[in-house]
């Protein structure tokens, strides 16, 4: 009896000691192969430094198919981790917006969520032979004080299968939620300059959606006049210029990058002028940036890329009775960029919509600079050298696959590392600029060979801008905005929250053929194996007891 009491007290003391040690030293151990429950160090730092209470309302709740249940579980598990590291400053709740007392109340709840920025998704299912439809809101509202940010949890590449899209959404949950929390908790926004003084033919309204989106996270400055320097800006964006840069302006860009600046160039290699309803005249565009780009290890060519993987345009293909028949036909001069490089900027991003894209090459002679491809075309391309007349009649013609063997063309590239100045050995000692001139320095540059990637369309009938990446012909919204915002985030994010987009969770799908073939075997095994194990355990226990008390 004394031995039993002693053992009990000993175990109790051990458990109490372990509990006391656990209260002093906090740790969590992720035993999964792909570290699916581990959040990045940057996110942990963000949460631990929270100085205001953050409330996350998730509207992904209710009866869902297994894929959406997995997304709901991933969101809940991520928020549990967030709550652990937030020192009590984060709370969350899940609710079902379809749960209402009446249909009118349900519609009001739906409209409220739409007004707050969440996009609904229709779920279709077959129940008892009947096709059912349910509206869900796979998103969340992250709120702190009086500010609230909508977070769309269902995001991925639309060309992927539904299962892959859900898996991509699962991988992005941490980044989407952490980005919203960072905006709410970071009163000191980064400063981003938009260099538009060389963009004279593009109306300001065609950049309005990008600017409005950027203003949620950054302090945006329009660089209209020629400043003395670009110092003080955390990033500089050159948006679809159509007027050449002077040598002095090029020198300022050079020194900004050499001084540690981050620059994003969205520039065209060819100028497209509409000459008639029949087509466009395309000619080379010289912005006087070629030698600067070449020094950085890149070159934009004065051509156009035709790609069989392309968007569509509405075209009159004939008459239906006495009325013209308008159909959406593929326009190979509008490539859909759905081929991405190994970067968190483009991981799980939807296809990027481009118009009159030029090809981009990387060149040698730039030691110390790492060149990372971001956007690429499909392998089925053809190049059109400028000048050229691009007629819309080409859209009517069936393309010959034999003409589209140009291979994959680079459309956007990330350059980072040690840069050498273009003006090295060109600044004389008596030049006033020699006092501040820098010959080398660390920087980051993104060059995209299509200025239209950042340009939104405009509805002149309603006098309102359309979302960036919106295609009128298909009514699809492509991933242009996500690509630009992720690129800007990568360039300015010192903590590295953007790197959480690199998380990769493998889909371990069952072999359906093998499952169907061996279905009976596994059913019998699952039914009998537990009984066999239980019987063996009972027999061993009976034998031990009989031998002990014999």
Protein described:
- The relative contact order is 0.11.
- The two termini are 22 Å apart.
- This protein has helices spanning 2-24, 41-48, 66-85, 103-115, 162-185, 208-214, 247-258, 290-296, 480-492, 512-517, 519-548, and strands spanning 54-58, 90-94, 121-127, 130-136, 139-144, 147-152, 190-195, 218-223, 235-239, 262-266, 270-276, 279-284, 298-300, 303-307, 310-320, 323-337, 339-340, 352-353, 360-362, 369-376, 381-385, 388-391, 410-420, 440-448, 458-459, 464-465, 470-471, 476-477.
- The chain is globular and about 105 Å long.
- β3 and β4 form a beta hairpin.
- The model has no long low-confidence stretch (mean pLDDT 84).
- It is α+β, with helices and mostly antiparallel strands and 550 residues long.
- The strands form 9 sheets. The chain has an 8-stranded mixed sheet with strand order 8-7-9-10-24-23-20-17, sandwiched between helices. Strands 2-1-5-6 form a 4-stranded mixed sheet, covered by helices on one side. Strands 11-12-22 form a 3-stranded antiparallel sheet, with no helix packed on it.
- The protein is built from 11 helices and 28 strands.
- α3 (66-85) runs parallel beside α5.
In short:
Residues 189-486 form the ABC-type uncharacterised transport system domain. By secondary structure, the chain is α+β, with helices and mostly antiparallel strands.
Largest sheet: 8 strands, mixed
Terminal Cα span: 22 Å
Strand order of the largest sheet: 8-7-9-10-24-23-20-17
Rg over C-alpha atoms, rounded to the nearest angstrom: 29 Å
Shape: globular
DSSP strand tally: 28
Structural class designation: alpha+beta
On the 0 to 100 scale, the average pLDDT is 84
Spans of at least 5 consecutive residues whose pLDDT stays below 50 are none
Number of discrete helical segments: 11
Percentage beta strand: 25-35%
Helix content: 25-40%
Protein name: Gliding motility-associated ABC transporter substrate-binding protein GldG
Keywords: Membrane, Transmembrane, Transmembrane helix
């Amino acid at each position: 009896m004394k031995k039993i009491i002693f053992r009990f007290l000993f175990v109790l003391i051990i458990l109490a000691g372990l509990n006391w040690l656990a209260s002093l030293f906090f740790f969590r151990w992720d035993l999964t192969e792909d570290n699916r429950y581990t959040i990045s160090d940057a996110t942990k730092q963000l949460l631990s430094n929270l100085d205001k209470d953050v409330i996350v309302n998730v509207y992904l709740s209710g009866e869902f198919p297994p894929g959406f249940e997995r997304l709901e579980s991933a969101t809940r598990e991520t928020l549990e981790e967030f709550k652990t590291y937030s020192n009590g400053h984060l709370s969350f709740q899940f609710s079902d917006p379809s749960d209402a007392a009446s249909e009118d109340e349900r519609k009001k709840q739906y409209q409220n969520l739409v007004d707050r920025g969440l996009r609904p998704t229709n779920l279709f299912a077959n129940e008892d032979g009947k096709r059912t439809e349910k509206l869900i809101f796979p998103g969340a509202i992250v709120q702190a004080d009086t500010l609230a940010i909508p977070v769309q949890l269902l995001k991925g590449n639309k060309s992927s299968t539904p299962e892959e899209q859900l898996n991509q959404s699962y991988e992005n949950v941490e980044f989407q939620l952490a980005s919203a929390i960072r905006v709410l908790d970071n009163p000191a926004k980064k400063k981003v300059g938009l260099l538009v003084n060389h963009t004279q033919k593009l109306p300001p309204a065609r950049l309005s959606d990008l600017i409005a989106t950027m203003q949620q996270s950054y302090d945006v400055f329009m660089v209209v006049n020629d400043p003395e320097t670009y110092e003080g800006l955390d990033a500089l964006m050159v948006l679809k210029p159509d007027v050449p840069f002077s040598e002095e302006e090029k020198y300022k860009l050079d020194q900004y990058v050499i001084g540690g600046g981050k620059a994003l160039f969205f520039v065209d290699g060819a100028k497209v002028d509409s000459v008639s309803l029949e087509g466009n005249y395309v000619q080379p565009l010289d912005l006087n940036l070629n030698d600067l780009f070449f020094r950085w290890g890149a070159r934009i060519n004065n051509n156009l890329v035709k790609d069989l993987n392309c968007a569509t345009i509405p075209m009159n293909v004939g008459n239906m009775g006495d009325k013209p028949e308008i159909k959406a036909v593929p326009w190979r001069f509008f490539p859909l960029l759905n081929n991405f490089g190994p970067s968190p900027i483009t991981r799980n991003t939807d296809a990027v919509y481009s118009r009159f894209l030029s090809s981009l090459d990387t060149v040698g002679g730039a030691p110390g600079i790492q060149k990372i491809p971001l956007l690429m075309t499909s392998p089925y391309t053809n190049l059109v050298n400028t000048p050229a007349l691009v007629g819309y009649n080409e859209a009517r013609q069936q393309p010959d696959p034999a003409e589209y063997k140009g291979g994959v063309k680079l459309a956007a590239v990330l350059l980072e590392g040690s840069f050498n100045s273009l003006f090295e050995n060109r600044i004389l000692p008596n030049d006033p600029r020699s006092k501040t001139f820098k010959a080398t320095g660390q920087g980051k540059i993104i060059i995209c060979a299509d200025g239209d990637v950042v340009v939104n369309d405009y509805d002149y009938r309603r006098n309102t801008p359309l979302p960036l990446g919106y295609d009128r012909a298909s009514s699809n919204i492509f991933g242009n905005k996500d690509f630009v915002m992720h690129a800007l985030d990568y360039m300015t994010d010192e903590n590295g929250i953007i790197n959480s987009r690199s998380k990769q969770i493998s889909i371990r799908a069952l072999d359906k053929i093998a499952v169907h073939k061996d279905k009976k075997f596994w059913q019998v095994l699952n039914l009998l194996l537990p009984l066999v194990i239980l019987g063996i355990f009972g027999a061993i226990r009976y034998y031990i007891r009989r031998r002990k008390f014999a």
